[in-house]
Amino acid sequence: MSRPRPLVPRTDPADSVRVVGEFGVIARVLARSGVARAAEVGPGDDAAVLRTPDGRVVATTDVLVEGRHFRRDWSSAEDVGHKAAAANLADVAAMGAVTTALLVGLACPPDTPTTWLEGVAAGLAAECAPLGAAVVGGDTVSAAPGSGAVVLSVTALGDLGGRAPVLRSGARPGDVLALAGRLGWSACGLAVLRRGFTSPAAAVAAHRRPTPPYAAGPAAAGAGATAMCDVSDGLLADAGHLARESGVRIDVDRAALVRATLEPPGPLQQVAAALGGDPMAWVLTGGEDHALLATFPARRPLPEGWTPVGAVRAGQPGVWVDGQPAEAVAAAVGAEGTGHAHFR
């Protein structure tokens, strides 16, 4: 008969998830989560209840995994919350909608400090607050033994406000390709952090907390945008999604793109010069800035915040830059592919 193993005393911090417990964690997180204007029933019941004046709901989900999408030694808890929210709010905006609420699934090791989770909740709330949105529910679970990583799954719900959704499939030959927001900054900040630096601060901050142009999505829908997407994996890669879904050729004007993204000169040129690279590699293929890319009828004025950077033409679906295929242009500026690809 084997003897029972002696209990090993735990040394978890007093505010760890294991010590505080599931409902203690939920209470602390909800205290920092804000209030959603669309919520009739908020957190606390089996499900939330939201008002949907439009009668339709836009829904999207993103998963952030520690070590892949964020590092706790590079980003504060608040940074992680902002970033997790931004990835979803931008997707809703890219449909021409406004986010109304978030649902958050959390898996974390039992020794995770609850103060860190409170910081994530505060970041989520701060990113959502200007839109009148907030976290209205979710779930918590212990991470797999030995994994040690935090996983955040965020679902965003949005309202179209009576507008038709702007899909990726509506671009037509003759349309103008336009950009709202900035490109390359998050990738530049990541390059800085990977080398152990935290300056230029503006580039690093852009990686930690993206600043998507949320209002530009509904504005584009109201101005008659024919197609739109969030640039999360890189301009060339995401423009490729528009081209394939719409069955068109997209031509990017490099000079116009430079004017829209690299003028006046700033941190991207400084870091690229220090590293011996080309800032256009970040502009063309860098992800996680969550700019918006859209196509508009040529005869209509672009809404505020949008800048023309190319054109839509008939032809084999794909992306070209000044007459060169996207893959060749990406290679010429030293990029590995046209953008981020999961599992590659």
- In which order are the strands of the major sheet placed? 8-10-7-11-9-12-13
Number of helices: 12
CATH class of the largest domain: Alpha Beta
Largest sheet: 7 strands, mixed
Structural class, please? alpha+beta
Function: Catalyzes the ATP-dependent phosphorylation of thiamine-monophosphate (TMP) to form thiamine-pyrophosphate (TPP), the active form of vitamin B1.
Binding site for substrate: 69, 288
Binding site for Mg(2+) 5: 233
Organism: Geodermatophilus pulveris
Provide key terms for this protein.
metal-binding, 4-stranded mixed beta sheet, 60s Ribosomal Protein L30, Chain: A, alpha+beta, thiamine biosynthesis, 7-stranded mixed beta sheet, Phosphoribosyl-aminoimidazole Synthetase, Chain A, domain 2, disordered N terminus, 12 helices, kinase
Protein topology:
Elements: H1 17-20, H2 22-30, E1 39-41, E2 49-50, E3 58-65, H3 77-94, E4 98-108, H4 114-128, E5 135-142, E6 151-159, E7 176-180, H5 185-194, H6 201-208, H7 216-222, E8 227-231, H8 235-246, E9 249-252, H9 254-261, H10 267-275, H11 279-285, E10 291-296, E11 307-313, E12 318-321, E13 324-325, H12 326-332
Parallel strand pairs: 4-5, 9-12
Antiparallel strand pairs: 1-2, 3-6, 4-6, 7-10, 7-11, 8-10, 9-11, 12-13
Helix pairs in contact: 2-4, 3-4, 5-6
